[in-house]
Every structure is written in structure tokens, then in C-alpha cells.
Specification:
With 151 residues, this protein is α/β, with parallel strands linked by helices. The chain has seven helices and seven strands.
Length: 151
């Protein structure tokens, strides 16, 4: 398994152990993780505390993101996709996009939006990521729907 995806999965499991959603993310430059985070919406009572946002926040100020890669256990939503585009992260590696294919609206999917803005998207189709999310969604459908903005 890719060691950076493994780090993102570890973040996801940390979030789950804290009573939150099992979504994790790491920001990588070269061969080093410069930021890590997990979904903390429940823990912080903060609707903006998605894994990718937490990761970028924890990475701190960067003079550039053009040489980074963002890893996430799950396809980013539009909020997180917007942050990737805003900061110029050129590549996003995801664990899976089966349980959540990302945001979808009249402008298309998160993936299409990322790619239309020059971001390379790599889907590792990881079985552990899929199993972790499927189990969480089965056990906590109301919390999951709240996270993705479904009433």
C-alpha cells in the first residue's frame, strides 16, 4: 500500500476513534508529509472541519502548493475541491470514490471540476477505504447525510 495513503487512513481511524467521521488526509511535498488532518466536524461542532481543510490548516502557511500532492481517503466534496483549486495543489490521490463520488451539481462532479482546473486525480480504489466508509455509513446514516449536506 502507498505509505501516504496509509497515513491518510491512520488519520481517518483517529477521527473515528474521536467519535467523528472516518475521513483522513495528508499533504505531501517530495517524500515528506507536511500536513495531516481528519474530519473533525463532530468533534469541533464545525461544519467546515473537513479532513482536507484540517490537513491544509495543519500544514500551515506555504509559499507555494504547486509542488505538493494531497492524499485523501475519500473523493473530496466541493468545499475541499475548492480549497485544492484555490491553493494550486496540482495532484489529488484518493483512496476511493465509490461510497462518495464527490460533489455533484450543474457544474459536474468534484472530479470533473478538479480536472477542468488542471488538477490530476488518481483513484487508488482501496478496499480498506471503501470498507471503512461503507461500515460508517451503514452504522451512522444520519451523521453521514449531515456531513455531505443531504437532508
Amino acid at each position: 500500500m502507498d505509505r501516504f495513503l496509509r497515513a491518510a487512513i491512520d488519520e481517518a481511524k483517529l477521527g473515528l476513534s474521536e467519535g467523528g467521521l472516518p475521513i483522513g488526509s495528508v499533504l505531501v511535498r517530495g517524500s515528506a508529509i507536511i500536513g495531516r488532518g481528519h474530519n473533525r466536524r463532530v468533534q469541533h461542532g464545525d461544519p467546515m472541519a473537513h479532513a482536507e481543510i484540517d490537513c491544509l490548516k495543519n500544514a500551515g502557511r506555504q509559499s507555494t502548493y504547486r509542488d505538493t500532492v494531497l492524499y485523501s481517503t475519500l473523493m473530496p466534496c466541493y468545499l475541499c475541491t475548492g480549497a485544492v483549486i484555490q491553493f494550486g495543489v496540482p495532484k489529488v490521490v484518493i483512496g476511493e470514490d465509490v461510497t462518495f463520488p464527490g460533489g455533484s451539481c450543474k457544474w459536474g462532479s468534484s472530479r470533473a471540476f478538479l480536472e477542468a482546473n488542471g488538477v490530476e486525480v488518481v483513484d487508488l480504489d482501496d478496499p480498506e477505504c471503501k470498507a471503512m466508509m461503507r461500515q460508517f455509513i451503514d452504522e451512522h446514516p444520519t451523521l453521514w447525510n449531515e456531513d455531505i449536506g443531504v437532508s
